[in-house]
Amino acid sequence: MYDLPDLNKFVEVRPGLFRCTIIWRVMPGVEVPVATFLVRGDSLENGSDPAHDWLLIDSGAPAQVDTLLNAIDGLLTHEKDTLRYICITHAHVDHTGAAPALLEKYPGSRVVIHQEEKPFICDGVSHRTCPSDTWTFTLFKHFSHESYVKVPHDRTVTLRDDDKWEFEHVLKFVATTGHTPGSASYIHIPSRSIMVGDALMNIATNPMWSKVPCISGPMALSTCNWGDAMNSISKVLTLKDEVDTVFPAHDYSVDGIHIDKVHEFHKPSL
Ligand SMILES: [Zn+2]
Question: Gene3D superfamilies in the record, alphabetically (predicted)?
């Protein structure tokens, strides 16, 4: 049923940008694809097979840790290859699972996270404590999966809304709050792609019955501020000069979404 070429392994979707999709069993009968991305930084040395710095965007669900670590090992094959940053789009359980294991495996690495998201990944605070502007979140937050990941404060790079964090002209931070208080996206500058986490999704309307991708906003049940989430989609659309492709974390397509399609889906009220 799942014929994605990047299933359980990293595949180069754009030059220097690699995606690995792992299927997450949310509950019996409900399976959702979760994508993580590896970004290749500049070469660390000359020669035909140089080592690189690498950055990871999101780190999968806890049940996916071994699969993700194996997939990373399959790509970071040079003995001097190293993971520098784990860039988290938001601290939900399906995006943070392997972060502690990766921090241990790569002692020089750090987690990049929005300041408003940090309590959920460093201090054990639950997203259920978030104030909400919707009845859906207020009602359904009690049934959501809790993340038990704990990351040490001194292993984080903490960013605020307007901070301009950029790695070697390769990856750039953009705050896209709403799904969670500190949701963020990351632009892969060379390929004009943006990884938006759950700010947008491209899975079936009903994942229990279908695998036909369909653009939607974030999942309402787990989105604490719907107004901010819609403004963040508008914000992504304002990046049209820098971005051609939008890659959601939950995506049944291989090639992401062209930003024009996002525009058709969401007419911004700017
Ligand atoms: Zn998610």
Answer: Ribonuclease Z/Hydroxyacylglutathione hydrolase-like
